[in-house]
TrEMBL record:
InterPro entries: Isoprenoid_synthase_dom_sf (IPR008949), Polyprenyl_synt (IPR000092), Polyprenyl_synt_CS (IPR033749)
The protein, known as: Polyprenyl synthetase family protein
Keyword list, A-Z: Magnesium, Metal-binding, Transferase
Coiled coil segments of this chain: none
Organism, as annotated: Herbiconiux daphne
Family matches, as SUPFAM superfamilies: Terpenoid synthases
Gene3D superfamilies: Farnesyl Diphosphate Synthase
Entry's family note: Belongs to the FPP/GGPP synthase family.
Cofactor(s) needed by this chain: Mg(2+)
Length: 356
């Protein structure tokens, strides 16, 4: 399949998921209108915050489903949309935890309702509390309705139970990863590399890669060994993806990533880079800068220089490649058809291509 065909398939899958989500939100707004304009407005805000993403998780569901012989694309689109709503719920709640009011360059749910309150003359601390309170409600709605979209997929009996179990496990482990991430931010001693990798597996890889791939495989009626193989692929490529994402958050080209390379350093984000660097004496020279809300571009350059001199950047790049290679090893399992390897080889290549 050439590049043009890959883009066309990806666009088709996204359009199918978008149709499911559009119908879901239309129905939800209609129900909400009966309970008053403010509730309907909340659903409109939640829909806006679900729009604009890459639909990455739904595409993982549909890629697994179709590469394993599934033909009911509407059912797969509903399951994919369920994982997109789970993603929405988690990032809405994550923004509350991080006290962030912006997402994708615009106000998130918290920010939207904070701005409404400040425009009405409410003092900022109270307005921010209102924004975060509404965001918790919105995240709860998205989380619950992820399960409802599984129900609307047409799957029933044991199949529906298995899909519910996969979605439940994805949410369950992500909550554990979020808890560990919160704990790392207040813990006196820095986390180790292994602790960071485990946190990223739980918080992100499980619901972004492993769960969606397994759900698509189960929906397609794949054998248990194939489901496990795709799960292992997703787990390892998800960890690799997150390590690379953290690298780009410090060393990336802002024009390419659309993300500042100062933000993670200013936040004091716990990553593999940090976990490796703190084990070297050179880190002491910049330890006081890391996590400073007043971090300047010059300060950030000093930290990057230390991350280079300690070998932390090279270490993180090598670790990302290692997990990407483990992911490919899972794909060559004979339980998976060639179509699955052809489908996901570009994902491995994409992750490896982002390293340097």
């Amino acid at each position: 399949m050439d590049t043009h065909d890959l883009v066309a398939v990806s666009d088709r899958r996204q359009q199918q998921v978008d149709r499911v989500l559009k119908a879901f939100f239309s129905d939800s707004r209609y129900r909400a209108e009966k309970l008053g304009a403010p509730y309907s407005a909340l659903w409109q805000t939640l829909e806006r915050n679900t729009s604009g993403g890459k639909r990455f998780r739904p595409r993982m569901v549909m890629a697994a489903y179709e590469s394993l012989g599934g033909t009911d694309v509407d059912a797969a689109a509903h399951v994919g949309a369920a994982f997109e709503l789970l993603h929405t719920a988690l990032i809405v709640h994550d923004d509350v935890i991080d006290r962030d009011f912006v997402r994708r360059g615009g106000p998130n749910v918290s920010g939207s309702y904070r701005d409404i309150a400040t425009t009405a003359g409410i003092p900022l601390p109270i307005a921010e509390h209102r924004g975060m309170s509404v965001a918790i409600i919105a995240g709860d709605l998205a989380l619950f309705n992820a399960y409802r979209l599984i129900d609307r997929s047409g799957a029933d009996g044991i199949l529906r139970t298995r899909l519910h179990d996969i979605l439940d496990e994805a949410m369950f482990v992500s909550a554990a990863g979020e808890l560990y991430d919160v704990d790392f931010s207040i813990r006196a001693e820095p986390p180790t590399v292994d602790e960071i990798v485990e946190m990223e597996r739980l918080k992100t890889a499980g619901y972004s890669f492993e769960g969606p791939l397994q759900a698509g495989a189960v929906l397609a009626g794949a054998a248990g060994e194939a489901v496990d193989a795709l799960g292992a692929f997703g787990r390892n490529i998800g960890i690799a993806y997150q390590i690379v994402d953290d690298l780009l958050g410090v060393f990336g080209d802002e024009n390419d990533t659309g993300k500042t390379t100062v933000g993670d350093l200013r936040e004091g984000k716990r990553t593999v880079l940090l976990a490796h660097a703190v084990t070297h004496p050179e880190w002491a020279a910049v330890e006081g800068l890391f996590g400073s809300p007043d971090l300047t571009a010059a300060d950030a350059r000093r930290i990057r220089e230390v991350l280079e001199s300690t070998g932390s950047r090279r270490f993180a790049e090598a670790l990302a490649r290692d997990f990407a290679n483990r992911a490919w090893e899972a794909l060559v399992n004979p339980a998976l058809p060639d179509a699955a390897r052809a489908e996901f080889q570009p994902v491995v290549a994409s992750v490896l291509g982002r390293v340097r």
